[in-house]
Specification:
heterodimer, A: mainly alpha, Enolase-like, domain 1, rod-shaped, B: alpha+beta, 8 helices, globular
């Protein structure tokens, strides 16, 4: 025999394993509960005639329990699949629960509404991309930090970068920009000055000035491939390759001084003075330019 | 064991002198080699300390001998004995069969056919889109402004709540060549996502040890010349690919006069980013004689040598990257094909690196 009242008294006042009390109220964890609150009218155990809606993989089912089947727990709950359409589902509920207490039917319909809304929202969210939060174990984080520090020490970065830059300088990528080692350059200039004083310098000086301004505007980027173009331009202006290289070096040095933002050392100042003198005197340096196949690399030999 | 030793001792005592000595020697050897087999803590620690002290003395002796040999060789004018190479992790790195060989035809063919070849062959100039994750905070914007100054031709767009896939589409329409997404976690940028376009690979890096420009002592201010790129130590195929990905972010025609260098240095799978302005200078190194300095000679003599050095001034941010995953195609975590994913089981060996 089903004595709902007895069941309720026992459950509520003694112990119910589905009940959970929290600060805001008393809730029922029973999956067949319509409202989720622990109530005399909402308790699926203490009501022999009960119905709920449950969701399985996005499909809603209406579950009904009647007192006639109370002695057969296996077949206790009758399941009806509800259609996708909200209105049709409501109609179906009405049909199945026609003579049931209105309160229960109302609660079931409310539950259906809520669940359909949730289903819509879940589907919308699933389409959007959401960031998934992954955690890393603390041990790994510490390990990575340790390894990174050691790697940084092992990679002596400043030295490595300097070495790479010097290697590039040796390879000749910067040819035409730098005239290092500097003292040798000055020496060669000094020695060749004596030879150059006999030459006729006026014309070439004028040419030099014009030619250089042109070149400066055209040639911003010294690339390997562009070198060829640069040289051929020079050859048209001046017949001498040598002059060009000399021009380049001096002009480059002058440009460097303009561009340079680091504090000038005494060394650099003297360099500037030297160049001032050189501009007036127009020495000629015998520079051999070796053209390789693509004309890509120059070797300036003193 | 104690029982056994007792019987041994008994035997030794009972037996003859020779066997006694033998057994004692055996025991001594045993305890010298394995202090862990001695149960008595005091005795064990004493033996261990003795062993360590002995080792220390041996090491010092060896060092002295080496120094003496080197000195003697120098004095005699001979070549000093060859210096021993210390064993480092890089020396003892596990052999990797994917290391790029210099004459690899397949590598060059692969390079021609991969996604970066268009940019790297000057066909397209790199145009970078920088954005953030959805929730941006504190250090993120500062880092992004610095990135904007480091990478030429880069633009920053606010994230809003757009899907990354939508952003990729948008960028494709506007002819960008790469997207960089800076991801923030706990108010610190901690991940970088570099997506090549139009259908380029997606590299996910973990970002750490970020130091902004204002926090660097004696920092310099970068100019707007195109920087040179230095990529160190990208040896394996994967490393090579990542190197090319990084290369495709920067314009391929560096302005050498600008003297600006951006370095990505790979060490043990950590990619260190540095940004410097450099200058070449000559430095005189006077080689002093071993018998003290004599009167100053003129510069033309061979005693003082000149050396060209490079000096660096750091500007711009400094950070470390570690590759987490490389995915073929644009960002698609669910459907994409991952070329390389970091798994914790890869960390089991301390001598194994992938980049």
């Amino acid at each position: 025999m089903q004595h709902d009242e007895v069941i309720w008294q026992v459950i509520r006042h003694k112990h119910c394993s589905f009940m959970s009390k929290i600060t805001t109220g008393i809730f029922c964890r029973n999956p067949y509960n319509v409202t989720g609150i622990c109530n005399r009218s909402s308790c699926p155990l203490a009501n022999s005639r009960y119905a709920t809606i449950r969701d399985h993989d996005g499909v809603f089912y209406l579950y009904m329990k009647t007192i006639e089947r109370a002695h057969k727990p296996n077949d206790l709950w009758e399941r009806v699949k509800l259609p996708r359409n909200y209105e049709k589902a409501l109609e179906l509920i009405d049909k199945h629960l026609m003579y049931w207490p209105k309160l229960l039917v109302h609660k079931i319909k409310q539950r259906l509404t809520k669940m359909t809304q949730m289903r819509i929202r879940m589907r919308k969210l699933a389409l959007k991309t959401r960031e998934k939060i992954m955690t890393t174990p603390r041990k790994e984080k510490k390990r990575e930090a340790r390894r990174e520090e050691k790697a940084e020490k092992a990679a002596v970065l400043d030295k490595a970068i300097e070495k790479e830059l010097l290697a590039r300088l040796e390879n000749g990528i910067y040819d035409g920009i730098y005239n290092l080692p500097f003292n040798k350059f000055l020496q060669t200039l000094d020695t060749d000055e004596l030879q150059a004083e006999d030459e006729n310098e006026e014309e070439s000086e004028v040419e030099y000035v014009e030619g250089n301004f042109e070149l400066e505007e055209e040639d911003d980027i010294e690339d390997l491939g562009m070198k060829d173009y640069h040289l051929s331009n020079d050859e048209e202006v001046d017949d001498d390759d040598d002059d060009d290289d000399d021009d380049d070096d001096e002009v480059n040095a002058v440009e460097e001084q303009r561009v340079r933002r680091k504090p000038k050392s005494a060394h650099e100042k003297s360099e500037k003075d030297e160049f001032g003198k050189k501009l007036k005197k127009r020495p000629r340096i015998h520079v051999e330019v070796e053209h390789e196949e693509g004309g890509e690399r120059q070797k300036v030999t003193f | 064991m104690g029982g056994k030793r007792k019987t041994n001792e008994n035997e030794g005592m009972e037996g003859e002198e020779d066997s006694k000595h033998n057994i004692k020697k055996m025991k001594k050897e045993k305890s010298e080699i394995l202090p862990s087999s001695i149960k008595n803590k005091e005795k064990r620690s004493a033996v261990h300390a003795k062993l360590k002290h002995q080792k220390k003395l041996d090491k010092r002796k060896k060092l002295k001998a080496r120094d003496a040999a080197a000195k003697r060789a120098l004095e005699l004018g001979e070549e000093p004995p060859p210096k021993q190479i210390p064993r480092t992790i890089e020396n003892t790195r596990e052999a990797d069969e994917t290391v790029c060989m210099p004459d690899d035809e397949e590598l060059f063919a692969g390079n021609d056919a991969d996604e970066f070849s268009a940019v790297l062959k000057h066909d397209r100039t790199p145009k970078i889109l920088i954005t953030t994750c959805r929730f941006n905070s504190t250090r993120g914007p500062a880092f992004i402004t610095e990135l904007l100054s480091v990478i030429p031709n880069s633009h920053y767009y606010k994230r809003g709540t757009y899907d990354l896939k939508k952003i990729v589409e948008y960028a494709n329409n506007k002819e960008f060549t790469s997207i960089i997404v800076v991801h923030t976690n706990r108010r610190e940028p901690d991940a970088l996502l570099i997506i090549g376009l139009p259908d380029g690979p997606t590299a996910h890096f973990k970002l750490s040890s970020l130091v902004l420009r204002k926090d660097i002592k004696n920092h310099g201010n970068p100019t707007s010349h195109e920087p040179e790129l230095v990529l160190n130590n990208f040896t394996t195929r994967l490393g090579h690919r990542i190197g090319r990905l990084i290369q495709s972010l920067f314009p391929q025609s560096p302005n050498f006069r600008g003297r600006r260098v951006v370095t990505f240095h790979n060490q043990r799978d950590f990619i260190f980013f540095r940004h410097h302005r450099y200058i070449f200078e000559t430095k005189e190194i006077k080689q002093s004689e071993s018998k003290g300095k004599k009167a100053k000679d003129t510069k033309g003599e061979s005693i003082s040598k000149e050396k060209v050095i490079a000096r660096l001034q750091e500007c711009g941010p400094r950070f470390t990257l570690k590759l987490v995953s490389l995915q073929h195609g644009t960002f698609d975590t669910r459907g994409g094909e991952f070329e390389w994913v970091h798994k914790p089981e890869m960390d089991t060996s301390r001598r194994r690196f992938f980049l």
